[in-house]
Specification:
Elements (H helix, E strand, L loop, with lengths): L1 E2 L3 E7 L4 E9 L4 H12 L5 E4 L3 E4 L1 H16 L4 E4 L5 H6 L7 E2 L2 H26 L7 H5 L4
Parallel strand pairs: 3-4, 3-5, 4-6, 6-7
Antiparallel strand pairs: 1-2, 2-3
Helix pairs in contact: 1-2
Amino acid sequence: MVDCAGARLCVYARSLATIVRIDGEVDVSNAERIAHEIRRFARVKAPLILDLSHLDFLSVDGFRALLVLNHEHHKAGLHCSVIAGPAMRPLLRIVINHGLPVANSVAEALQLIEDVVSSRRQFLAGLAKQREPQRRTPLAQVSGDGR
């Protein structure tokens, strides 16, 4: 648990993702510090789930920090999901094209990550199959010559 002046970050490592639950209040006084702490956990290069469902207050500054973090993850090719809660919903109604991948629960976010990983594996398996050398049929079988 990390104390960030009015907010607490609880970090849970799962096999598919790092989950960061934020409780308390995120405002101008601690938004950057919280973003800094989240960046520390993002260094492991694993998908990230930000659980804000227990947050009491989220300011515009906190929302802006979320947008920046999401952009950084997207740019790095990492998946990031946000679990919205009552504190975040008013901002989501005001900022329509926010680009945040919002899920309804941690379980749903984990399922989305699992689906992406599964699709990627299937895609890569298909590519590997296409690159396998084709077995050549002996010329005698192709021409019908049984010699």
